[in-house]
Amino acid sequence: MTVPRISYGVGQPWGNAVISSIDVVGAAVSDVAIPPTLLQYRNSQVVAYYDAERTLTIADRNIGGLVWNYRKLDSSAKRDSHNYVDLGFDRSGQLHVAGNMHASPLQYWIIDLSSEEFRPAKVNALLDPQAELKITYPRFIRSSDGSIVFTYRNGSSGDGDFVAVIWDDSEQRHKLVSDGPLIDGGGKRNAYPDSNAPILGPDGLWHLLWVWRDSPDAESTHSINYACSQDLVAWRSGDGRPLNRPIALNEQSIVDPVPPRHGLININVRLGFMPDHRPIALYHKRDASGSQQLWSAVFEDSSWVIRQLTNWNFAWNFQGQGSLDFKIEIGVPYTTTRGLSVDVRLNEEVQTYSFDTDLTLVSTEVAAPGGPLSRSTRSDGLIERCEAARGWRPEDDSREWFISYATVPDQRDHRPKSNVPTYHPLSIIGTSVAQGT
């Protein structure tokens, strides 16, 4: 299938809306596949990206405003797609920034965006500087009470722990959510959670979904696991049994015991919720013929029920280490009144799969534009991408916002083999519901 190049213009249809504005933020590095981050909080939009000189840049404005404020941090992009940046706001309105890390020392700043002077507070340690030398996958999560939770991997691929700390606004410092890491690799493996986990579900519980990897080789990924908690401290399995802390490899948490080299890979392990709030795991693994298929796991009665959801004739045999150019991507599952929907990309084609409450496939259609899986290859070798902003608080704003950028495909963290543009414009797209719809 030939996928057309993504094209944007004011007034152009965008799903059930139209594009109302396109604003260029600046030039962003494009010869390494590091995605920018767009976060919205109250009346602010904040973008984190590496500029044309590869410098980590924070740009902010009032939502829909014309003027951006730019702040440069003392950190430069490397040729490593793992070195993305994440953003979060604490309850006092301070911006927390963490990124440019791949099994490397902590890179973390706290910024007061309301100040006319740019004085980023460099955080030298979350808890122990001697123990925070190999950090990867920073992620900020907002708790139900507004607290900011920061998660990361401490260690390396095949040998690392999944850690969560919480920011104490009154004491202005981090504290461990629980004693030790949330998930302990035991020096023999590491956990790769759903990239949004822990997820606060519609039932008011925190949910964790993860796979294990025994080495840097992607083929060593195995075993879907699940746990839930009321307070991020005490965790239990799907059947309610308490799990030891920190959580380690054990049968109680296993959802699907997929062996290594059977087509399971991190990133494409997604947690969603059925209309009755039951958690559902979506992932891919190979069938008996060697084709990749989309699978689901839902806890029913006393056990996890595994279902094959597709009948693709599609093989993707991956191996080795470094950032892979994924041939399959599974998006975030969305709960619908009828069941569940999810966007899936096979090669360059993105489709929306809709399922009923019995997980019977109801429909398959081309996905709407603006999804995080949408991409198209340009003549200069860059891939155009577009994804929605993350929002931490519902806003009185009928518009939706997307970030548009272009980078090379993932290069296993090496220099591109051919000459490609080193930077490309980074834009924010605003959409609004068309009149009469």
Largest sheet, if any?
Answer: 6 strands, antiparallel
Distance between the termini: 31 Å
- Gyration radius, rounded: 21 Å
Low-confidence stretches: 1-5
What is the number of E strands?
A: 34
Helix/sheet category: mainly beta
Strand order of the largest sheet: 1-2-34-33-31-30
Number of helices, where a helix is a run of at least 4 consecutive DSSP H or I residues:
0
The proportion of residues forming helix, as a percent range, comes to under 10%
Q: Tell the overall outline.
A: globular
Strand content is: over 45%
Average pLDDT taken over every residue? 92
What's the short story on this structure?
The chain is mainly β. It has strands at residues 13-14, 17-29, 37-41, 44-50, 55-62, 69-76, 85-89, 95-99, 108-111, 121-122, 135-142, 148-156, 159-168, 173-176, 190-193, 199-200, 206-213, 221-229, 235-236, 254-256, 269-273, 279-286, 292-300, 303-308, 328-330, 334-335, 339-346, 349-356, 361-366, 375-377, 383-388, 390-391, 400-407, 423-433.
Describe the structure.
This protein has strands at residues 13-14, 17-29, 37-41, 44-50, 55-62, 69-76, 85-89, 95-99, 108-111, 121-122, 135-142, 148-156, 159-168, 173-176, 190-193, 199-200, 206-213, 221-229, 235-236, 254-256, 269-273, 279-286, 292-300, 303-308, 328-330, 334-335, 339-346, 349-356, 361-366, 375-377, 383-388, 390-391, 400-407, 423-433. The strands form seven sheets. Strands 1-2-34-33-31-30 form a six-stranded antiparallel beta sheet, with no helix packed on it. It has no helices and 34 strands. It is mostly beta strands.
